[in-house]
């Protein structure tokens, strides 16, 4: 789905990634790499194969959009270093794109790890009149891209029907990204009249009617 | 000392109390002293405690002739009780015998309420007679050198076995017993059970299939028949009777009259929130009861509960509003009257509650039934029949509960470790795991050692490690600690302790309820009006609220009970009687309702299957009435809606109660095609059930408990702040990850099996479909909802089923914005 913000074109993808056409930047939030391995290390047997889904998704969106830069909007790595980090290291070696991390609350591993991989780290990042952060942030004259919340939406319809879905949550001056990572949950938001909500389905993105 | 002399001691003791031993008591003594195991079928308040404490003590005297001077320390007998609340009473009974016979035996309790220091003391020196719960017993099996502790134990008694059977706590007991049989070879195993339909099976489950213990066992029945009288509370005028489930508060004046007439009345409600509401309602309308009234349910602090129990015994209370928390054990002689609010769903439960009154031998027990909505009155007359015919239900034991096995093996691994070949044989001899294959076993072992993956270089899974000599052991202290905290099979929503700002623990409420409260909100809990100050560190801090402020009553999640097979049959029988002239007082009272029902529709006969359709502003309703009980309706709704959804894309919301089920859709349902396509067929039932999305939803909920029991979800200590947030994940999320990446995981499969066998009751479903196929279908197109349909269509707990694409559905739906 294509949307326009501040006269710039963006493509929202059902994986939770956004492609910024003019800048050729791929924006991704809350991957939470290492979460599965972290649980396993503590004796909780989450299926190991879930680890590879994150990399498979990255592959899909990279092939689709062919960006020059990837910006992670925080919570890239879920926990302390574990073997999933090695898989990520391997992955970065196979890719030539510039990688930027806007730090999130989960990103607690030493920055050295990232700089060793030539990943630039920012607390927040300004590109034109866009402000990229992990936590939702308001700054005058800026449009904010952020994550952290893992937004979801609950819908209702005739016949007592209900649905809960992950979504992009578009406020007047902010776009909150859904979590990209497998094995991450949602928190459900209630929109106001001024908000737009783009629900994620396997087939594509659908704008939700709000009443 | 020979047996005659021992009996003489026991009988003299009975005489001294002014009692005479019942035949079932002496029979139990004899069997026990002969070295037999067994199951004793005796009701509460019949003296069952003395039937088993006595032979345990006599056996000790027999084996230690100089018992008065020489005391051998160490654990001699274990008494398992499912409810902590009962342990005090059991201890008192044991102490009474020990003191009167001047034995140097000590009696101790070990349960979740036992302090750390007390536990430590016990670990150093076990009491001679130990009263404990299934969970605390598991914890003992998870401590170092447990085999030594039990080595000289001569008896284990599992009290209220019927309550454990048919639950995973029962499975936990089966496993514990399989181990104890080996480490304590001299131990006799005894169970005590109230009357259930399958006592012989209960005996086999307790002792193990084809085991030596079972071969050498007896079933002793107390055969104490109690007269039970069931009375319905009917209003003077039926017009005011609500059509749908409420709290039954419209009958409060009638209840007050009953309370006034008797010394002590227990009012049983089915859920805790109803308990809170009734307490408030009586307090407000009849403030004169205030000083003589109390409330008792599982979420109230233990101190309060104990106080209430004592007050009942001391005849200090006129009325107690309670839930199933007062169902078991405790013998309340002063209780004269029982009121049951709302359908009790099962005959056994109802009779047990009735039995709480009139404890004096030969005295008739009276129980009042208060139907919360009109149709429930039919249940009342069905219950009367049940009581007259003493029909009781079976308790169906679990099979292949892999979650409990995983927990058990982890427990053994944190204690001294275990050797799989040895444990395999023990586990295989239990009832629950009798059909376990070597392949299943190896999967479980692999799950606890490799997290169900094959060894891969990058994998860091760590839990149980295999030592060089083949011993399975948990070495990590942190994992061991986490495991010990989580032992148990009762899974509730995360609960938060409620405390006064000034200190003082009131009880616990569930997290989801707390999350709906804002500071300053007022809620009613444990009969108090409380104002929320703040929620912090898993604690809900409150202060006394301004009495003028509006408040809401705390509610708890928790499954709804469904009618048992026996009850559903009686219920149908009663309902079909409505068209005859053999009317019970309840059916006569219901005449106005039947008249309304007949105006729009019919009251079906034995050979009729009623379907009603109508339209409201919510959409198109189709209500079906098989009268088969909630669980069967859940399955029927699932399967019929699935079959309809195959004909054309459609989305349903499903609701059900004990009488029927409803399919609600935004589109009109083509009934003609339902009949033309023979959608009530018994063919492909299993396949269709599995395919219906609904079963996935149910399996998802089953998986919630399974994942907690198997240790996949770390919940931390109940009520203690969790410092391990980084290891928490919702079971929803887990379910999806397993479904997508490891569909052959046994724990995931167990969720589906439990759905089909315990929840959807496939066997009963097929029988129901066969019955429907023999009946004539009567389809009534009504203009508006009928009295029969009303309780169903107003139910807000619903399932969904859809064959439309997500995109189609999203387009028809909306998100409401904040106003």
From TrEMBL, chain A:
InterPro entries: Calcineurin-like_PHP, Metallo-depent_PP-like, PdeM-like, Pesterase_MJ0037-like. It comes from the Bacteria. Residues 24-148 form the Calcineurin-like phosphoesterase domain. SUPFAM superfamilies: Metallo-dependent phosphatases (SSF56300). One of its GO terms (molecular function) is hydrolase activity. Gene3D superfamilies: 3.60.21.10. It holds the Pfam family Metallophos. Coiled coil: none annotated. This is Phosphoesterase. It comes from Flavobacterium pectinovorum.
UniProtKB/TrEMBL annotation, chain B:
Residues 251-413 form the Helicase C-terminal domain. PROSITE patterns: HELICASE_ATP_BIND_1, HELICASE_CTER. It comes from the Bacteria. PANTHER family: ATP-DEPENDENT HELICASE LHR-RELATED-RELATED (PTHR47962), LARGE ATP-DEPENDENT HELICASE-RELATED PROTEIN (PTHR47962:SF3). The keyword Membrane does not apply. GO terms for biological process: DNA repair. This is ATP-dependent helicase Lhr and Lhr-like helicase. It holds the Pfam family Helicase_C. SMART domains: DEXDc, HELICc. InterPro entries: ATP-dep_Helicase (IPR052511), DEAD/DEAH_box_helicase_dom (IPR011545), DEXH_lig_assoc (IPR026362), Helicase_ATP-bd (IPR014001), Helicase_C-like (IPR001650), Lhr-like (IPR017170), Lhr-like_DEAD/DEAH_assoc (IPR013701), Lhr_WH_dom (IPR045628). The keyword Cell cycle does not apply. One of its GO terms (molecular function) is ATP binding. Belongs to the Lhr helicase family. Lhr-Core subfamily. Keywords: ATP-binding, DNA damage, DNA repair, DNA-binding, Helicase, Hydrolase, Isomerase, Ligase, Nucleotide-binding. SUPFAM superfamilies: P-loop containing nucleoside triphosphate hydrolases (SSF52540). Residues 29-214 form the Helicase ATP-binding domain. It comes from Flavobacterium pectinovorum.
């Amino acid at each position: 789905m294509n949307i326009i913000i501040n006269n710039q074109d963006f493509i929202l993808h059902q994986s939770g990634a956004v492609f910024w056409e003019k800048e050729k930047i791929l924006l991704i939030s809350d991957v939470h790499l290492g979460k599965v391995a972290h649980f396993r290390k503590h004796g909780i047997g989450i299926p190991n194969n879930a680890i590879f889904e994150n990399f498979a998704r990255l592959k899909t969106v990279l092939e689709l959009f062919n960006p020059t830069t990837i910006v992670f909007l925080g919570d890239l790595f879920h926990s302390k270093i574990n073997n999933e980090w090695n898989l990520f290291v391997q992955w970065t070696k196979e890719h030539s794109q510039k990688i930027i991390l806007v730090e999130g609350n989960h990103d607690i591993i030493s920055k050295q790890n990232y700089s060793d991989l030539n990943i630039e780290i920012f607390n927040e990042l300004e590109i034109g009149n866009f402000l990229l952060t992990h936590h939702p942030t308001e700054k005058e004259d800026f449009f904010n891209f952020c994550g952290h919340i893992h937004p979801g939406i609950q819908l209702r319809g005739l016949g007592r029907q209900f649905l809960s879905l992950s979504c992009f949550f578009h406020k007047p001056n902010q776009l909150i990204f859904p979590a990209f990572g497998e094995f991450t949950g949602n928190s459900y938001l209630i929109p106001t009249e001024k908000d737009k909500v783009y629900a994620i389905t396997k087939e594509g993105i659908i704008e939700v009617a709000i009443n | 000392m020979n047996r005659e002399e021992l009996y003489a001691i026991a009988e003299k003791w009975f005489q001294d109390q002014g009692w005479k031993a019942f035949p079932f008591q002496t029979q139990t003594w004899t069997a026990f002293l002969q070295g037999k195991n067994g199951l004793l079928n005796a009701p509460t308040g019949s003296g069952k405690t003395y039937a088993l404490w006595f032979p345990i003590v006599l056996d000790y005297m027999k084996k230690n002739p100089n018992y008065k001077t020489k005391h051998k320390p160490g654990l001699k007998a274990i008494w398992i009780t499912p409810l902590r609340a009962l342990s005090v009473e059991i201890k008192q009974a044991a102490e009474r015998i020990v003191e009167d016979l001047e034995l140097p035996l000590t009696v101790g309790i070990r349960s979740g309420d036992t302090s750390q220091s007390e536990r430590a003391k016990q670990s150093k020196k076990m009491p001679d007679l130990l009263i404990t719960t299934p969970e605390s017993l598991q914890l003992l099996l998870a401590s170092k050198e447990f085999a030594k502790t039990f080595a000289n134990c001569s008896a284990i008694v599992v009290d209220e076995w019927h309550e454990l059977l048919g639950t995973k706590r029962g499975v936990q007991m089966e496993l514990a017993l399989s181990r104890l049989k080996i480490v304590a070879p001299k131990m006799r195993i005894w169970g005590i059970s109230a009357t259930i339909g399958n006592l012989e099976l209960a005996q086999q489950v307790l002792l193990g299939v084809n085991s030596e213990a079972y071969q050498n066992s007896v079933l002793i029945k107390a055969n104490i028949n109690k007269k039970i009288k069931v009375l319905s509370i009917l209003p003077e005028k039926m017009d005011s009777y609500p059509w749908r489930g409420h709290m039954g508060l419209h009958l409060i004046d009638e209840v007050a009259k009953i309370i006034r007439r008797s010394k002590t009345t227990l009012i049983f409600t089915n859920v805790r929130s109803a308990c809170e509401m009734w307490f408030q309602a009586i307090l407000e309308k009849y403030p004169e009861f205030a000083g003589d009234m109390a409330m008792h349910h599982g979420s109230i602090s233990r101190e309060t509960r104990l106080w209430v129990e004592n007050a009942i015994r001391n005849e200090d209370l006129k009325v107690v509003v309670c839930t199933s928390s007062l169902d078991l054990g405790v013998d309340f002689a002063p209780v004269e009257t029982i009121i049951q609010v709302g359908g009790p769903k099962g005959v056994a439960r109802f009779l047990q509650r009735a039995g709480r009154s009139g404890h004096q031998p030969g005295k008739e027990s009276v129980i009042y039934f208060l139907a919360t909505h009109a149709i429930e009155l039919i249940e009342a007359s069905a219950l009367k029949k049940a009581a007259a015919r003493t029909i009781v239900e079976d308790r169906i034991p679990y099979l292949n509960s892999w979650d409990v096995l995983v927990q058990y093996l982890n427990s053994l691994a944190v204690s001294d470790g275990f050797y799989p070949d040895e444990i395999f044989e023990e586990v295989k001899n239990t009832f629950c795991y009798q059909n376990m294959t070597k392949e299943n076993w190896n999967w479980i072992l692999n799950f606890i050692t490799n997290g169900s993956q094959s060894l891969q270089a990058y994998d860091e899974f760590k839990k149980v490690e295999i030592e060089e000599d083949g011993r399975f052991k948990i070495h990590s202290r942190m994992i061991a600690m986490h495991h010990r905290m989580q032992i148990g099979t009762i899974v509730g929503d995360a609960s938060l302790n409620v405390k006064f700002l000034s200190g003082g623990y009131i009880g616990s409420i569930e997290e989801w309820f707390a999350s709906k409260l804002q500071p300053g909100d007022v809620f009613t809990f444990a009969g108090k009006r409380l104002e929320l100050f703040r929620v912090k560190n898993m604690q809900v801090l409150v202060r006394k609220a301004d009495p003028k402020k509006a408040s809401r009553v705390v509610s708890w999640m928790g499954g709804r009970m469904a009618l048992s097979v026996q009850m559903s049959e009686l219920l149908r029988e009663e309902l079909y009687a409505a068209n005859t002239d053999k009317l019970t007082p309840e059916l006569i009272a219901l005449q106005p309702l039947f008249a309304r029902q007949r105006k729009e529709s019919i009251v079906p006969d034995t050979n009729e299957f009623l379907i009603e359709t109508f339209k409201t502003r919510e959409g198109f309703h189709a209500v079906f009435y098989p009268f088969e009980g909630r669980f069967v309706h859940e399955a029927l709704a699932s399967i019929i809606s699935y079959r309809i959804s195959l004909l054309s894309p459609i989305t349903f919301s499903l609701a059900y109660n004990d009488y029927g089920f409803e399919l609600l859709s935004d589109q009109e349902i083509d009934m003609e095609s339902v009949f033309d396509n023979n959608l009530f067929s018994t063919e492909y039932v299993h396949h269709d059930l599995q395919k219906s999305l609904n079963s996935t939803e149910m399996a998802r909920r089953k998986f919630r408990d399974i994942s907690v029991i198997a240790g996949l979800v770390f919940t931390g200590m109940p009520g203690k702040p969790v410092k391990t947030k980084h290891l928490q994940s919702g079971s929803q999320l887990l379910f999806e990850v397993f479904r997508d990446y490891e569909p052959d995981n046994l724990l995931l499969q167990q969720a589906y099996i439990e759905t089909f066998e315990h929840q959807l009751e496939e066997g009963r479903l097929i029988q129901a479909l066969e019955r429907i196929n023999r009946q004539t279908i009567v389809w009534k197109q009504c203009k508006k909802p009928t009295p029969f349909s009303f309780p169903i269509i107003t139910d807000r707990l619903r399932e969904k089923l859809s064959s439309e694409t997500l995109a189609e559905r999203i387009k028809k739906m909306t998100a409401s914005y904040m106003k």
